[in-house]
Amino acid sequence: MASIYDIKPAFQNLLRPLTRALAGAGVTANQVTVAAAALSAAVGACIWLWPAARWPLLLLPGFLFVRMALNAIDGMLAREHNMKSRLGAVLNEIGDVLADTALYLPLAGVAGFSPWLVVVITILAIVSEMTGVVAVQIGASRRYDGPMGKSDRAFVFGLLTLLLGLGVPPGDWLLWAQVLVGALLVVTIMRRARRALAEAG
C-alpha cells in the first residue's frame, strides 16, 4: 500500500535551495529539529487551550505542512552538509514522537473527536515509530513503511481539522475516520516489523 512518504524525494528537491541557504547562514540540523518540536508544542497548546475555537484547527493543517518541510530540511542538512551526529539522531527520533503527541493528543478535547480513540491513535503512532527504530537494532534499515506513517497522519489530521475549522459539522464520518486511522496504524506496525525481520534475516 502506498504512502505519502514515497513522494519525499520530490519534496526534498523543492526544498534543496532553501536548505542550502540555511546551511550558508549557519543554521544547523539540530536547531531545525528542535524548532520543529517547539513549534509543534505551541500549536498543540493552542488547540488544548481553545478546543471550541476554529482558528487553532485551521492553524494545524498549514503547520503540519511546515513541519513536514522542517523534517525534510533537517535531514538534508545532516546528510548533505556534513551535520550528522549521534545527538542529531536522538533528537530526530524523540523530537518526532514528542511533536506527534503534542499535536494530536489535544484533539481529544475537540468536539467530534473521540478522546479514547485519540489516545489510542497517539499510542499506536508512537509504537509505529519505535518499530521503525527497532529495525536498526536487529540489523535492518530504519523502516518508514506505510500505510499510516508520519506524513500520512499529517495529511489525514490536517484534512480533518481543516474540515472542522471551515465549519463542517462533526458526525459519524469523523468517528469512522479515527477508527480507520487506528486500523491503518496497526497495519503499519505489522508491516514495519515484518519487513524489518525479512531484511535482517
UniProtKB/TrEMBL annotation:
One of its GO terms (molecular function) is phosphotransferase activity, for other substituted phosphate groups. One of its GO terms (cellular component) is membrane. GO terms for biological process: phospholipid biosynthetic process. It comes from the Bacteria. This is CDP-alcohol phosphatidyltransferase family protein. The chain crosses the membrane at residues 21-50, 89-107, 113-139, 151-167, 173-190. It holds the Pfam family CDP-OH_P_transf. Keywords: Membrane, Transferase, Transmembrane, Transmembrane helix.
